[in-house]
């Protein structure tokens, strides 16, 4: 138990350091002086020298590298180029982070529940009408990129549901502030509904296909036949005998799925102008704000890495074979 | 009676293929006509050919729909001849009568129209009858024997045997593949898309990369005869853009999928075959890339390396190989433990020989199916990178079309003809590769389970 945990934590640390090195190196590969990005209209040499010194760009490369690895742990992500006057990135992250966490968290939960339900039902009725319909719909939905689902939703709602909000996370701030709490919550929900729907459709489809094939593998094994021969009723077989074994590969899939959903939020936030991390990243690309882009990338990767770490730990408890 | 059944099945198949082929040629001619670079006499000829093609199409569809089809080739040819010439004549008459009202036409136009139409109609009747009677029957068994002899003489005995084995294996896979409906559906979509991509620049009525100069900004027009899928804000034809986009998607998808599988196969084989420290290091790297969310990674790489087609291809390939490496490693491990590898090593085979002659051929079916699945993912990624504004701005692609539509808020204004074609293209192409890959996996690697 302890050896396993220690090994996993060790790998986690290595992965995080690798990510940071990658993040550091890739942005060092950029041509040109990163300081110049701070001054799109040019600046005197003294100003440039001052800011190079203040941001630590004049230190030796090794020191910069070490600092790049330590800094995120003390909450220093550098300085944003776009947000004047020169705000530290950590100060502007919070509202964006909350929105993305909300989308990803709720999206993952919905994906797990609906995906398992659909996959289970169609695996149980393998080859029947329900299964065939569910599977073909899943394949079709799985083939539609998330951003196209969002585009279709916008077309439908823009033309046939007048007054439905299609962008932003709230109504315009002047109006939003005058609402009472209940209306504020309603307003937030209404704005979040479409992005969330667009986000989960594809991952539900993909996930239910995986649940189905994983469960079918289990259902064709001999011990299920034994359970049937014992005279257990169908639901008990499914719940007590088949599902626990089918869950094992799913845990890892869910963890990798977090990365997929995160990728989806980038598309969704861009299209619905839902101001989360993905939108921030897109703005950073537009303004060539590489420190900001670096931070967004770092946060998203870390989230996925941790999801996988948790999946490993969960698998340890679910799967007795690892303990040996 | 049995013969009758057999003949009919063959006829249906050939007829469907002929219809697709003729429809394409007709489209090409329509595109050429739409370009407006022809003089009046040539226009007459092309219109004549076009009407002959349409007549042949109608004849074939009529043949397909008709319940009782003629059984002997002789009666078949007769039927095709009469209906085809008849329909051609009617069409030519319609064109000849309406031509003066469309534009001021000289008699040369009509003369060319009729000549072109009838010559081609007869030529097509002969060709299609030949195809329907079936080329293989026409050439006969002796032809196949002769080809086999030729192959035997040029390659030598061992290689011929090997080639024969490959052919039988491929036939077996194909015979199994044919029975899967979903796979065949994907296969047909892929063929149609490939043909559109190849002949696209010929059928397109204009080159979407050349901007319309001097034109004022006009409202997008809904589909019309001149522009089958309407136009965008710069009065550019959407149908032409769609055709150019098909080529881009297939090109990027194919190359990126290839890069991804090549890296994955290399790393997977090395890790699986050499094991120990290699395995440990390479699998750590693979795990790292597997966990990295490919999407943000792609965006960051594309943002850094700039906007060009090759960067897009490279970025997609780089960020998606980890899964392949895992699968390849697992099956390499399984094959490495087999007895024939040990025997080969006992006979003095080196590592390179074992990998290239034994391991690679054994995992090849796996590589084929995963690379098809990878292409499906690559098309997805490419379309989104373009949509996100990170693609090559000078290359026409479906994602690029959607990006421009999104910029002009075509969704809000309900310019459906601008949005539906590229979206449908992306969805169909992704689905087709997914279905093909899934079916190939099922047929070629029956015992391997993918995690």
Largest binding interface between chains: A-B, 47 and 42 residues
| H/I helix tally of chain B | 16
Shape call of chain A: globular
DSSP summary: helix tally of chain A: 12
- Rounded mean pLDDT of chain A is 80
Helix content of chain A: over 70%
Top CATH class of the largest domain in chain A: Mainly Alpha
Q: How are the SSEs placed, and which strands pair?
A:
The complex is a heterodimer of chains A (324) and B (451).
Chain A (H helix, E strand, L loop, with lengths): L1 H27 L16 H11 L5 H10 L18 H36 L4 H15 L2 H15 L12 H5 L3 H39 L2 H8 L4 H39 L4 H10 L3 H29 L6
Chain B lengths: L1 H34 L4 H26 L7 H30 L4 H27 L1 H21 L1 H22 L2 H23 L34 H37 L1 H16 L2 H12 L3 H10 L3 H15 L2 H8 L4 H37 L10 H10 L8 H29 L7
Helix pairs in contact in B: 1-2, 1-4, 2-3, 2-4, 3-4, 5-6, 7-8, 7-16, 8-9, 8-11, 8-12, 8-14, 8-16, 9-12, 10-11, 11-14, 12-14, 14-15, 14-16, 15-16
Descriptors:
heterodimer, A: 324 residues, mainly alpha, MetI-like fold, 75% helix, B: 451 residues, 16 helices
Task: Tell me what you see in this structure.
- The complex is a heterodimer of chains A (324) and B (451).
- Chain A has 324 residues and is an all-alpha fold.
- Chain A has two domains: 2-74; 92-323, MetI-like fold (Orthogonal Bundle), CATH 1.10.3720.
- Chain A is built from twelve helices and no strands.
- The model of chain A has no long low-confidence stretch (mean pLDDT 80).
- Chain B has helices at 2-35, 40-65, 73-102, 107-133, 135-155, 157-178, 181-203, 238-274, 276-291, 294-305, 309-318, 322-336, 339-346, 351-387, 398-407, 416-444.
- In chain B, helix 2 (40-65) runs parallel beside helix 4 (107-133), helix 8 runs antiparallel to helix 9 and helix 14 (351-387) packs antiparallel against helix 16.
- The two termini of chain B are 50 Å apart.
- The chains are: A mainly alpha (324), B mainly alpha (451).
- The A-B interface holds A 11, 14-15, 18-19, 26-27, 29-30, 139-140, 142-145, 147-148, 151-152, 154-155, 158-159, 166, 217, 249, 256, 259-260, 262-264, 266-267, 270-271, 281-282, 285, 293, 296-297, 300-301, 304-305, 308 and B 182, 284, 287-288, 290-297, 299-301, 303-304, 376, 380, 383-384, 387-390, 402, 406, 411-412, 414, 416, 419, 423, 426-428, 430-431, 434-435, 449, 451.
């Amino acid at each position: 138990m302890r050896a396993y945990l220690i090994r996993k934590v060790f790998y986690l640390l290595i992965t995080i350091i690798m990510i940071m090195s990658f993040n550091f190196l890739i942005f060092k590969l950029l041509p040109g002086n990163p300081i110049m990005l701070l001054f799109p209209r040019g600046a005197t040499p003294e100003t440039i020298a001052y800011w190079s010194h203040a941001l630590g760009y004049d230190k030796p490369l090794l020191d910069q590298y070490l600092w790049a690895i330590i800094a995120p742990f003390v909450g220093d992500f550098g300085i944003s180029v776009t947000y004047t006057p020169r705000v530290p990135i950590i100060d502007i992250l919070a509202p964006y982070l909350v929105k993305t966490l909300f989308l990803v968290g709720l999206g993952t939960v919905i994906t797990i529940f609906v995906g398992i339900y659909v996959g289970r039902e169609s695996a149980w009725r393998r080859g029947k009408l329900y299964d065939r319909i569910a599977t073909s719909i899943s394949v079709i939905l799985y083939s539609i990129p998330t951003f196209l689902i969002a585009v279709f939703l916008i077309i439908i709602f823009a033309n046939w549901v007048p007054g439905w909000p299609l962008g932003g996370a709230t109504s315009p701030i002047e109006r939003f502030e005058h609402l009472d709490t209940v209306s504020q919550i309603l307003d937030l929900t209404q704005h979040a509904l479409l992005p969330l729907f667009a986000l989960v459709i594809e991952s539900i489809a993909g996930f239910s296909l995986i649940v189905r094939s994983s469960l079918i593998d289990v259902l064709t094994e001999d011990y299920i036949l034994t359970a049937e021969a014992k005279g257990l009723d169908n639901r008990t077989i499914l719940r007590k005998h088949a599902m626990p074994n089918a869950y094992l590969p799913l845990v890892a899939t869910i963890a990798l799925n977090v990365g997929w959903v995160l990728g989806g939020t980038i598309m969704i936030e861009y299209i619905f102008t839902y101001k989360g991390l993905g939108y921030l990243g897109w703005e950073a690309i537009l303004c060539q704000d590489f420190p900001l882009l670096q931070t967004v990338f770092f946060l998203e990767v870390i989230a996925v890495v941790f999801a996988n770490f948790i999946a490993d730990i969960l698998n340890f408890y679910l799967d007795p074979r690892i303990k040996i | 009676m049995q013969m009758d059944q057999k003949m009919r099945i063959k006829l249906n198949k050939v007829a469907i293929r002929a219809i697709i082929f003729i429809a394409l040629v007709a489209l090409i001619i329509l595109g050429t006509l739409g370009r407006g670079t022809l003089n009046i006499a040539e226009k007459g000829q092309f219109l004549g050919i076009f009407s002959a093609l349409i007549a042949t199409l109608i004849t074939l569809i009529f043949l397909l729909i008709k319940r009782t089809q003629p059984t002997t080739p002789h009666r078949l040819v007769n039927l095709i001849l009469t209906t085809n010439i008849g329909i051609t004549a009617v069409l030519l008459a319609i064109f000849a009568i309406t031509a003066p009202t469309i534009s001021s036409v000289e008699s040369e136009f009509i003369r060319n129209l009729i000549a072109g139409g009838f010559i081609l109609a007869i030529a097509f009747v002969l060709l299609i009858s030949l195809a329907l009677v079936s080329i293989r029957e026409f050439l006969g068994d002796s032809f196949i024997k002769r080809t086999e002899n030729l192959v035997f003489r040029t390659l030598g005995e061992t290689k011929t045997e090997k080639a024969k084995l490959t052919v039988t294996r491929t036939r077996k896979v194909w015979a199994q593949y044919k029975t899967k409906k979903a796979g065949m559906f994907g296969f047909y979509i892929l063929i149609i898309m490939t043909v559109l991509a190849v002949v696209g620049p010929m059928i397109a009525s204009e080159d979407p990369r050349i901007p319309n100069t001097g034109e004022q900004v006009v409202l997008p027009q809904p589909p019309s005869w001149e522009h089958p899928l309407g136009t965008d804000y710069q009065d550019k034809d959407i149908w032409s853009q769609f055709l150019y986009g098909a080529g881009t998607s297939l090109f990027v998808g194919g190359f990126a999928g290839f890069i991804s599988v090549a890296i994955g196969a290399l790393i997977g084989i090395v890790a699986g075959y050499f094991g120990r420290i290699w395995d440990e290091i390479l699998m750590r790297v693979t795990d790292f890339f597997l966990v990295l969310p490919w999407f943000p990674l792609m965006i960051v790489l594309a943002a850094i390396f700039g906007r060009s087609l090759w960067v897009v291809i490279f970025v997609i390939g780089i960020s998606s190989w980890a899964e392949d490496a895992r699968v390849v490693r697992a099956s390499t491990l399984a094959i490495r433990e087999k007895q024939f590898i040990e025997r080969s090593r006992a006979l003095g085979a080196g590592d390179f020989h074992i990998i290239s002659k034994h391991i690679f051929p054994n995992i090849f079916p796996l590589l084929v199916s995963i690379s098809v699945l990878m292409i499906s993912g690559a098309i997805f990624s490419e379309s989104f990178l373009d949509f996100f504004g990170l693609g090559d701005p000078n290359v026409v692609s479906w994602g690029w079309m959607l990006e421009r539509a999104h910029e002009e808020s075509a969704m809000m204004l309900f310019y459906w003809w601008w949005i539906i074609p590229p979206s449908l293209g992306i969805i169909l192409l992704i689905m087709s590769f997914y279905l093909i890959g899934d079916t190939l996996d099922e047929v070629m690697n029956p015992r391997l389970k993918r995690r």
